[in-house]
Specification:
The complex is a heterodimer. Chain A is α/β, with parallel strands linked by helices. Chain A has 17 helices and 23 strands. Chain A has helices at residues 52-67, 113-121, 148-158, 175-189, 208-215, 237-250, 258-264, 272-287, 328-331, 334-338, 347-359, 368-389, 416-419, 424-435, 451-460, 462-473, 573-586, and strands spanning 11-16, 20-29, 32-42, 90-95, 101-106, 126-133, 142-145, 162-165, 199-201, 221-223, 270-271, 291-296, 301-307, 310-316, 410-414, 439-445, 475-482, 492-500, 505-511, 514-518, 525-532, 547-552, 557-562. The model of chain B has no long low-confidence stretch (mean pLDDT 91). Chain B has 3 domains: 5-44 and 129-284, Phosphohistidine domain (Glucose Oxidase, domain 1), CATH 3.50.30.10; 50-118, no CATH class; 301-355, Roll (SH3 type barrels), CATH 2.30.30. At the A-B interface, helix 3, helix 4, helix 11 and helix 12 of A face strand 6 and strand 25 of B.
């Protein structure tokens, strides 16, 4: 090793979320990198504090109180590099505390270029608040088609952080795209110069010069490659990169207190969703498997997936368990939430709870009834976020059925609603209900919110990140077996045989519509032979095909989810409540 | 050390409120001047709206041929209904024409589009607090200072209002009834325990109340609030069973006095709390200064933010060092709270706000 650089041994990882800030001290213990201590504090990004660094200092001070090792000097600055009396060798920071980019999309066809633009923008912290299109409107955003005055009014009212213009394949349509540019230019012209948003052009590349002429020198125009260069060809990367750059510059770096954190950080501050995705990618490449990571956060829901070595990311900044709780009801009826409850709930009470949670976003459910409502909300938030990715996965080796999730070998859940649940069975059931995995998959929780920070840690010490990922990051819940198919309730779905390491064997028949949990402690493996009936496929691509696989244990063990795929929801609310109650009992809740 | 959310419910305190113009303008009062809540303290001009007239669409001609029909030029003033472009016939009388939708100035003609900037409007900023001008920020606004009661609410909507406080219930838990809202409520800010029926809102609009304060409200009524001509302020939370005793006591003891409501609420960036201010005479009692952010400690007065104690007030009896499990099974840092009704309960710290 070169003598010019001191090795990075102790690392302080800071994770600034919208509701909670956490600090993680990583150091060598017995020759291995381990998580030494983790602390958290309520985030202080908003009034009356207006400075995210306050909660970071609170969390770091608590680490010093626990360990007796000073990390802050008398001026409140991190001591780095590590010295004899305190400090750390490196600091890394990830952040999700800033507000998302608020965007207006202008384009031509909602099911072609505008759809591609939405795909591209879904990979960063952005919310499409308004859409201007020539044809029908897109769900979930205010939209105007046709009326130019209405389109201009929409932009003026929304005052977006940026406007994205798309439309036309390269060398294709021009008139409608130029008309959209004209509208955007007029709307921009009518705004105060200090409020004028940047305009990103990601449409027909041949029209760049004309669009620049229409927009004029007063507005900031950023042209990137066409997001839809051909009718059947998407090119999401350039617009994704531009949106992420805009988010970093206009949101993340303007977070009050960000400059302090940035000055401490040994590497660039990473947006948390991107960091989470990198960790999912790492886990997948480590073992050559498909990995699905989901995070139900306070202000944002994130789904990152590696399928057949391809990374996809969906970030929903309009869905979350705190500030955005009430916005869920813009997307689904209240019945979509109550269908996940085991008891009858007054819709008004659910609305009251969501409104209260939106305003007092840090509160935690104190009664069992409110806990179950928050868990029902979590299911819907994850289901909707995953739904954004479903059209992305091509039919192939891992996408056995077009309407179902691809085959994942490992599913990791994160976010307070999943990791702070009082019962791991509840956490597993939320994942199974919302994601509906198929075949055989490992289930784990990002229990100490280490997944995303480890991406930043990898930038200063890859070995430390790898060791922590293996030892401290994931809490293994067990393995789920979810046969695909439908039958009559109670009809045999499959028979499985489990051979434990000590030679014990167990053979069980599993009827359709049930959930079975078979204990297999963490650290143990077993051989699992699955023999589905002719109506069911256990993830091998053929109904009725038997197979044997080695499975890992976990806190719950092996979960046989024979409820069917897609998961049947009873149209009779009372029957559905009874099913939910039974499923919760089956999962030990 | 835990720093909770805070709410101010106080019968007498020093109040300072900034009143700022949205764009630079003119401050109309002097330092030290006494103002009433309805007095205008500053004024500014807001740029007019830009209206767009699409000549091509109005006349049914191709965009590239629209220019030949346009009869006015950029920089010209126009009145509403003036002909801007016409096709076939003298000034459009016998053919098709398009007319200006507003009085204003043609700021630009872009191809077939005529941009008309309507006349600027004047915004007058009222004091919204009876008190004394304690600071003047030239061209920007003022600070008004007073002494009085302050109640910070949970949520509200509908902007600002002033009016005489009128209690429509004699107990904090009683709901507002439509029949209680009659002509005697005209011009007042009405107070009730909770709001369950949309009919109450209709009746209040008919009686021309200036504002409404309730402890709890059914969230199903939320869509109705958008069209109301008066603000509504909720002090305890959606679904809360009524006003807290403290809030009720402050409001009841000031019934008949003028109150200022600011109902608009922002929960995230640029957070804004709804509040009720009731200016009082300074010699009634020595006012306490408003204090800064404080950590939670034993003896502090708190309010529960979630079921099963939503809206209940109490005093912190203990702050256990280790997290505990609550009824839901969730493990959390908690406080032991002596509720006003006499029961001692565990409440997660995250579900408490400090009251002072």
């Amino acid at each position: 090793m070169s003598q010019d650089f001191a090795p990075v041994e102790s690392i302080l990882a800071l994770d600034c979320g919208s509701t909670t800030t956490q600090a993680l001290l990583i150091d060598q213990v017995g020759g291995e990198y381990r998580l030494v201590v983790r602390t958290e504090a309520p985030s202080t990004v908003e009034p009356p504090w207006n400075n995210v660094a306050i909660s970071v200092r609170q969390a770091v001070t608590e680490i010093s109180e626990i360990t007796g090792w000073p990390l802050l000097n008398e001026r409140g600055q991190i001591i780095s590099p590590q010295r004899h009396l305190g400090g750390v060798d490196a600091v890394v920071v990830i952040a999700s505390a800033s507000s998302p980019l608020r965007l207006v999309l202008a384009g031509v066809m909602s099911d072609i270029s505008l759809l591609s633009a939405r795909h591209a923008l879904s990979t960063t912290y952005a919310v499409v608040e308004g859409v201007i299109s020539l044809d029908r409107l897109i769900d979930g955003a205010r939209g105007i088609n046709g009326d130019i005055q209405g389109q201009i009014d929409l932009i003026q009212q929304l005052k977006p952080d940026a406007i994205v213009i798309v439309g036309g394949v390269d060398g294709g349509a021009s008139r409608a795209v130029l008309q959209a540019a004209e509208t955007v230019a007029i709307a921009s012209f009518t705004m105060l110069s200090s409020e004028r948003p940047p305009i990103v052009y990601a449409g027909n590349a041949q029209l760049r010069a004309q669009v620049a002429e229409i927009v004029g020198p007063e507005a900031e125009l950023r042209a990137v490659d066409n997001v839809r260069p051909g009718l059947h060809l998407e090119n999401l990367g350039p617009l994704q990169a531009e949106a992420e750059e805009l988010f970093r510059k206009r949101k993340m770096e303007r977070l009050p207190g960000f400059a302090t954190l940035s000055s401490w950080s040994s590497v660039s501050v990473l947006p948390a969703a991107r960091a989470f995705a990198y960790s999912v990618q790492y886990l997948a490449r480590l073992d050559g498997i498909n990995v699905l990571g989901v995070d139900a956060g306070g202000a944002t829901a994130t789904v990152a997936a590696m399928v057949d070595d391809r990374l996809d990311l969906s970030v929903r900044s309009d869905l979350g368990l705190s500030y955005n709780a009430i916005r869920l009801l813009d997307q689904v009826p209240v019945e979509s939430i109550s269908r996940w409850l085991p008891t009858q709930a007054d819709p008004a009470q659910i609305r009251n709870l969501l409104h209260n949670k939106t305003i007092r976003y840090r509160t935690v459910p104190q009664t069992p009834e409110e806990l179950l409502v928050e868990q029902a909300v979590t299911r819907e938030v994850l289901r909707l976020t995953l739904g954004d990715l479903m059209p992305h996965w091509p039919k192939g080796a891992s996408r056995l059925y077009p309407d179902l999730l691809p085959k994942f070998h490992l599913i990791v859940g994160g976010g307070g609603a999943l990791t702070n649940t009082p019962n791991y069975g509840q956490a597993a059931l939320m994942l199974l209900d919302a994601l509906q995995p198929i075949g055989v998959a490992g289930l784990a929780l990002d229990k100490v919110r280490l997944m995303a920070p480890l991406s930043a840690v990898a930038a200063v010490n890859p070995a430390a990140a790898a060791q922590l990922m293996e030892r401290d990051a994931l809490l293994n819940l067990g393995t789920v077996v979810a046969p695909i198919g439908m039958a009559r309730e109670g009809e045999l779905a499959l028979t499985f045989k489990l051979e434990y390491e000590d030679g014990r064997q167990m053979e069980v028949e599993v009827p359709y519509g049930t959930l079975e949990v078979i204990p297999l402690p963490a650290g143990q493996t077993a051989n699992l032979t699955l023999r589905p009936t002719r109506r069911f496929d256990v993830g091998l691509g053929t109904k009725g095909q038997a197979g044997t696989t080695k499975v890992e244990g976990g806190i719950l063990g092996i979960i046989i989810d024979a409820r069917g795929r897609p998961l049947p929801i009873s149209p009779d609310p009372e029957e559905q409540r009874n099913r939910m109650q039974r499923w919760l009992w089956d999962m030990g809740s | 050390m835990y720093y909770p959310m805070e709410s101010r419910i106080t019968a007498l305190t020093a109040i300072r409120r900034e009143r700022l113009l949205p764009v630079p303008g003119q401050v109309l009062v002097d330092l030290g001047e006494m103002v009433g809540s309805a007095d205008v303290v500053a004024r500014c001009q807001l740029a007019g709206e830009v209206r767009v007239v699409d000549v091509s669409r109005s006349l049914g001609v191709p965009r590239d041929r629209a220019a030949r029909y346009i009869r006015r030029a950029a920089g010209e003033g126009v009145h509403a209904n003036d002909v801007l472009a016409a096709r076939g016939g003298l000034f459009g009388r016998l053919g098709k024409s398009c007319r200006s939708p507003v009085d204003g100035l043609i700021s630009e003609i872009r191809g077939s589009l005529i941009l008309i900037e309507s006349a600027p409007t004047t915004l007058e900023l009222r004091a919204h607090l009876k008190g004394q001008i304690s600071n003047v920020m030239p061209n920007r606004g003022v600070v008004v200072s007073a002494v009085g009661a302050v109640i910070q609410g949970f949520w509200g909507s509908g902007g600002e209002a002033e009016g005489v406080l009128k209690m429509l219930v004699d107990s904090p838990q009683k709901s507002l009834r439509a029949q209680s809202v009659d002509v005697s409520c005209h011009g007042t800010v009405v107070v009730g325990g909770h709001l369950l029926e949309g009919q109450v809102l209709e009746q209040a609009a008919e009686a021309r109340v200036r504002g409404m304060i309730v402890g709890g409200m059914n969230a199903d009524l939320y869509p109705l609030l958008k069209s109301l001509p008066f603000p509504v302020l909720v002090t305890e939370g959606f679904g809360a069973p009524g006003l807290s005793k403290q809030v009720f006591s402050v409001l009841q003891s000031n019934a008949g006095r003028e109150a200022m409501m600011s109902a608009d609420t922002e929960t995230r960036w640029g957070a804004k709390r709804p509040e009720v201010l009731i200016p009082l005479r300074a010699d009634e009692e020595t006012p306490r200064e408003e204090t800064g952010i404080q950590p939670l400690k034993v003896g502090d007065q708190v309010r529960a933010l979630r079921a099963p104690h939503l809206g209940e007030m109490g005093t912190v009896a203990d702050l256990p060092a280790m997290p505990r499990s609550v009824e839901s099974g969730v493990r959390s840092a908690v406080a032991v709270v002596d509720l006003e009704r006499g029961e001692q309960v565990l409440i997660p710290l995250a579900n408490l706000e400090m009251i002072h």
